[in-house]
Design a protein that fits this description.
- There is one protein chain.
- Helix content is 31%, strand content 25%.
- It is α/β, with parallel strands linked by helices.
- The strands form 2 sheets. The protein has a 7-stranded parallel β-sheet, with helices on both faces.
- The chain starts with a strand and ends with a helix.
């Protein structure tokens, strides 16, 4: 059997509307069985994530995260994605790791924003100026026509390289934003709850370790909190571990994840503050990889 390698070029046949629809459809199937293996070497991480969704298929995603590669002029993240047939377990495709990660990560937060951000949101602040932030410009633009982006980074030169207006004062930029998207590797919260304004939506993407967080306890306590998956966020990511430990929030304050009724995963009023934590589990990689494979298979039609 020939195993196809699906390249990054497959994204020419994809749309953000199709991506979010694939995530919604995937969450109507039985809940995924997932398992993660994380191996650390200082700041470096070896990530091995697996998922099986009955009726969809199975996936193993293997990658390394080496923050120091940025100074070497090399990608921070490297790896491969393996997609398996649901019935036979046979390997059906190998996918570009960065392609799957791009569309999974951005699609995850885009789905949250489509449900939680005010429909008239226009001012979008990107906190962080890496690959994820760049991808979010395209994703957000697909559902917020006329969106105006501002970027803040601890390294101004990195922010300037994005070609967008650059904020020097993070507090002022946060206060002026309708949507705040954080995509950093910080272990010390950057966004303070005291800065947040009524009606704002925050997409928290960067933190993925117990030691990482991007907003403080006050921000979590002020907002209505949503996650993509309780199982892959609450026990594993500092963004939730720390405020739960301090008593700033309880697990009951996590209102819904994508497996819950979509009617729960929604904004109630224009004034409330909402936070969506993007945990990015392997089940989302599986839904994304399947969508990519379908688009690639249909490319000649």
């Amino acid at each position: 059997m020939t195993i196809e390698m699906i390249p990054f070029a497959a994204e020419a046949h994809m749309t953000w509307a199709g991506m979010t629809a694939a995530l919604e459809a995937g969450h109507r199937l039985p809940r995924a069985d997932i398992a993660d293996l994380l191996v650390y070497r200082g700041e470096d991480t070896l990530l091995d994530r697996g998922a099986w969704i009955d009726g969809l298929g199975a996936l193993v995603k293997i990658g390394t995260i080496v923050p120091g590669n940025a100074k070497r002029g090399k990608p921070t993240i490297n790896g491969i994605v393996n997609l398996f047939d649901d019935q036979t377990g046979e390997l059906t495709a190998l996918l570009d790791f960065h392609l799957v990660t791009k569309w999974k990560t951005a699609g995850d937060s885009l789905l949250s924003a489509s449900r939680l951000a005010r429909k008239d949101s226009r001012n979008i602040l990107l906190v962080g100026a890496g690959t994820v932030a760049r991808n979010m410009v395209d994703a957000y633009s697909s559902i917020f026509p006329g969106a105006r982006f501002t970027v803040w980074s601890r390294t101004r030169a990195t922010a300037e390289a994005m070609g967008l207006p650059v904020a020097d004062d993070l507090e002022a930029a946060v206060k002026a934003a309708d949507i705040i998207c954080t995509a950093t590797l910080t272990e010390t919260p950057l966004i303070k709850g005291a800065w947040l304004q009524p009606g704002q939506h925050l997409d928290l993407i960067g933190a993925y370790k117990p030691s990482m967080r991007e907003v403080d306890d006050a921000a979590m306590a002020r907002a209505r909190i949503f996650v993509d998956s309780r199982a892959t966020t609450i026990p594993h990511i500092g963004e939730l571990i720390d405020p739960l430990k301090s008593g700033a929030i309880t697990e009951a304050d996590v209102i819904a994840d994508f497996y819950d009724d979509p009617a729960l995963f929604t904004r109630r009023t224009d004034d409330e503050i909402t936070i969506a934590k993007n945990g990015g589990g392997a089940h989302l990689d599986l839904m994304t990889a399947t969508y990519i494979a379908e688009c690639w298979s249909a490319k000649g039609r």
